[in-house]
Amino acid sequence: MTQLPLANESPDGFQVLGRSLELPCGVVLKNRMAKAAMTDSLGNGEGNPTATQLRLYERWAQGGAGLSMIGEVQVDPRFPENPGNLVLGAHSDQESLRSLAQRAQVDGAHLWPQIGHAGAIGSRYGRSAMLGHDDRRG
Question: In percent, how much of the chain has pLDDT > 70?
Answer without folding.
Answer: 77
